[in-house]
């Protein structure tokens, strides 16, 4: 029900267009696909990420890094997917700051959940970046296992 | 004739005397609170001033009778891990220098020495009769080789009256799981890291290069301690433990997010040699008033833990992060504060999605060396507003506490580096 509402809301501005070109609904599914992924990802975020990275994605000073426009969030998707799969406990600076907490592996999440949560993160907290696809997560997980 | 000379000399002696006196003793009679009490909310009769804005990660501090302030920084600023400040007679201080190119937390002055810690060592600096550090670049290394992880890496310290130093060595885990903070990850049997961390160690204040072999494993089963102080009334060490995180994240079917926000308690422990406070095998539930078996070690939120673990002396709501503890021995504040404890709560992060809490200084009344009666918030609004507290976006975060010669209370903020001083105005 909620999903349908989201779709309706998103396609509303295109309605005049749709009436003109009802036979070509392709752009509609693309936008709706991403927004549905974002909506699902928001739930994954609340359950598995919010306690450390906080509701506003701003993180916790010296402990948990922010997810706002960081090089990890906006950068290479393979690296980003690996952060979720393998966790993050390296003593490296993230955009010039170090963080002391340990992020555990989240490989128990389904491929779709990882795609959704990362798509959500990349399109929230002032971020604007392309969606993370199910196929991309599948591929990274497959490569990840071999090592 | 003699009398005449004496009469002539008297004013001279008085002037010389007062100059000497001013040089040795800092006069705090002109200290007044800022018009806005430094932004703090305080009980009536109290006021506060901003002593200085250091712009550094100010952790623990020491204040001398001569009006000098030594502040330990979590990370060195311009190569200085200890800042020195000097106060004017109105209480405002300026940074006069600094030394010690290492970050850390511990800072304590006792019997002519200053003790400061990095995250793996403790240094001591001899002081002159004005409490100035004689050789800032040549400290003695009294303790070395202490383990430090990525988390709970800081070493706090305090001394007793018998030349012993007590140092906390925090555990580098949340709850000693196979996978730190991992969903459903169980506890490592026996938690073997407890042999060298997750406790308090006692060392000699006047011996060089001590490490585990030379120290006494004083108390065991303390996840991480930042605030600690020596209680002079009953000659005993008191510590504030940072309780474990993420009961809900790790065991969502056992604990709701609401329970996770409140539990476990942040505990005050009165320690004796050999005590075991039970981390990671248990946590203290301040709502049930029970020691509960940790879920990583077979608990379910109800099963009680082994009774051999000590009870806390007092318990506070979860995750507020007690970073400073100070027994008040001054006489500026009203009688009820005497020998009671001030606790600086750094403020929470692990209460989300529930509102965050803390970012204040609490007063815990004591009687005969034991907590007596309900704790109360003493100094509030370090965060800037109730909304900033709830969101965990505090402007300032209280960390270290110290008592001034006149009995005023100093508080550091390790977020923006503000040094506060709280005074009592009523006569």
Describe the structure in your own words.
The complex is a heterodimer of chains A (147) and B (427). Chain A has 147 residues and is mostly helical. Chain A has a domain at 34-127: Orthogonal Bundle (Cytochrome Bc1 Complex, Chain D, domain 2), CATH 1.10.760. Chain A has 8 helices and no strands. In chain A, α1 crosses α3 (26-48), α3 crosses α7 and α6 (77-86) crosses α8 (134-146). With 427 residues, chain B is mostly beta strands. Chain B has 2 domains: 1-30; 33-424, 6 Propeller (Neuraminidase), CATH 2.120.10.30. Helices cover 9% and strands 35% of the residues of chain B. Chain B has 4 helices and 29 strands. A 5-stranded mixed sheet of chain B has the order 10-11-12-13-17, with no helix packed on it. In chain B, strands 1-29-28-27 form a 4-stranded antiparallel sheet, with no helix packed on it. Chain B is globular. The interface between A and B is medium-sized, with 26 and 25 residues.
What's a concise summary of this model?
The complex is a heterodimer of chains A (147) and B (427). With 147 residues, chain A is mostly helical. Chain A has helices spanning 2-11, 15-20, 26-48, 50-53, 71-74, 77-86, 111-122, 134-146.
